[in-house]
Design a protein that fits this description.
The protein is of the alpha/beta class. About 40% of the residues lie in helices and about 20% in strands. Bound molecules: guanine and fe (iii) ion.
């Protein structure tokens, strides 16, 4: 029981009240991990079986759990690494850290702590990169399965421009990916993503293998990085001299499509944006990472307003990103969009991290909503969680302002509880 907020469509403006439902005294009825009903408390409680337990979260807000569309679980111990842009940051900090994940026990420990951290922040679904090691994906999926979480993940494929101990080969990446799909995809709520890291660390032969996997398993996700940094783009051009542009490489190997998640997409040409739009591919906006690494400003307005508009997801990109919180992520996203002269309204912001990201991941039939029949992944938020937030809320008028205070001043402390498949998990941590 609490105040319910859920989105049906992307809010076009602050006044677009049809895009969401809000219940001042609402409830979500959960049976076997699934939402059996949601709406006004009186209606919903009338449908509950006698003796059904009621958890009273009033006066807090209940929303669908947050979704993070791009993060790297092996980067927890090098997040907040000082001083480098993307390629040096990868070579100096990221790659050495990821070599540790050859050890299954290490992977298990970090996977457990990673999912704990997401739950602490109200995130119930993540699309995660594992390391090159098959063991890291096994550790990640086993941890998610144990908590009944809906996650997307994949072993990174990378066969060049990386240190020894952190490369596979086209054939071994194909074989390992195929074995992981057989072992984990479709188990519980797990989804496998074919994950070539990016064009710099994959030979043409390896991207060919990634394309072959997508032809064999066309309903899988594909995740990679695209057009994040100028030096990265220049080096990619040298490695693939025949490609029309960076996007054209992934296009050529059959990696684009409605379940393709392209991290960053900061410096796209019009042709590249057209290629993403024509294939229904998703551009993933990672504001804290783009600011931290000095990569550039994602041109949200341009991508939304062009004739062929892009599908956009939002994500932390931990450990290039600097926060596990989707609230903090949208706080920084708001500022990036503001630098381009516009303001993202708070309803659109919360749509992005719930239903919007569920749609971007093609999972909105199961998550990102409070609709009956979907999985009971929920977050409970308190806009007065800290003294500074409580003081600000003394002046707040209305729901939009409350959401904006949560986004701008909130973090894990504003998350009262996180439910996964009906189980309260944050309070168990
Ligand atoms: N490009 C290739 N790998 C990575 C990574 O781990 N993080 C970021 N931000 N960009 C990448
Ligand atoms: Fe990334």
């Amino acid at each position: 029981r609490g105040r319910l907020l859920t989105f049906h469509a992307e809010p076009k403006s602050m006044e677009d009240h049809g895009a969401y439902s809000y219940e001042e005294d609402g409830a979500v009825l959960i049976e076997d991990g699934v939402i059996a009903a949601s709406g006004g408390f009186a209606d919903v409680s009338a449908r509950a079986a006698p003796g059904h337990e009621t958890v009273d979260h009033r006066p807090h807000l209940i929303l669908p759990g947050f979704i993070d569309a791009h993060a790297h679980f092996p980067q927890m111990q090098m997040i907040a690494s000082y001083g480098a842009e993307l390629l040096d940051w990868l070579n100096d900090y990221t790659f050495p850290e990821e070599t540790e994940f050859r050890d299954l026990q290490h992977g298990r420990r970090i996977a457990r702590l990673f999912l704990n951290e997401l739950l602490r922040n109200g995130t119930t679904t993540v699309a995660a990169y594992c390391s090159v090691h098959k063991e890291s994906a096994e550790a990640f999926f086993a941890e998610a399965l144990g908590r009944r979480m809906c996650v997307v993940g994949g072993k990174v494929m990378m066969d060049r421009n990386a240190p020894e101990g952190l490369t596979d080969t086209p054939q071994s990446s194909y074989d390992d990916t195929k074995a992981l799909i057989a072992d984990w995809h479709g188990k519980g709520r797990l989804h496998y993503a074919v994950t070539p890291r990016f064009a710099i660390t994959s030979s043409p032969e390896q991207l060919e293998m990634a394309g072959a996997l997508m032809r064999e398993f066309p309903d899988l996700h594909m995740q990679t990085h695209l057009s994040e940094n100028h030096d990265e783009i220049a080096f990619t051009g040298e490695l693939y001299p025949d490609a029309p542009d960076y996007t054209g490489i992934y296009e050529r190997y059959g990696l684009l499509g409605p379940k393709a998640l392209l991290g960053h997409c900061i410096h796209l040409s019009e042709r590249e944006a057209d290629a993403l739009a024509d294939t229904g591919s998703v551009a993933v906006f990672c504001p804290t990472s783009n600011l931290f690494l000095g990569s550039g400003l994602f041109d949200y307005q341009r991508y939304r307003k062009r004739t062929k508009s892009l599908r956009i997801a939002t994500a932390t990109d931990v450990g290039g990103g600097t926060s596990y919180s989707m609230l903090k992520t949208m706080d920084e996203g708001y500022k990036v969009i503001a630098l381009n002269g516009e303001k993202l309204n708070p309803f659109a912001s919360f749509w992005h991290i719930t239903r919007g990201n569920a749609e971007a991941l093609s999972l909105s039939d199961r998550i990102g909503t409070l609709d009956a029949g979907t999985d009971a992944d929920l977050v409970v938020l308190d806009a007065r969680a800290t003294p500074a937030m409580a003081l600000r809320m003394e002046r707040a008028k209305g729901l939009a302002e409350e959401l904006f205070v949560l986004q701008t001043l909130g973090d894990d402390r504003a998350v009262v509880e996180t439910y996964v498949a009906g189980e309260a998990l944050k309070s168990e941590l």
